[in-house]
Write a structure and sequence with these properties.
mainly alpha; extended; single chain
Length: 57
Amino acid sequence: MSKQLTERIPIMFDPALLKRIDDYSFQNRIRTRAETVRQLVMKGMESPETEKAEARS
């Protein structure tokens, strides 16, 4: 079995954004904030608007 390396990234959120993250987590039955943030980052990176922004760079 191979071990996949992960890297910890300290990050801070203002209370309003943290509430939105927690609400999203609850609505989608995601158990941890870390997993919620990972899923939201992946969704953001997969969106067409993000691809357009990357193409302009």
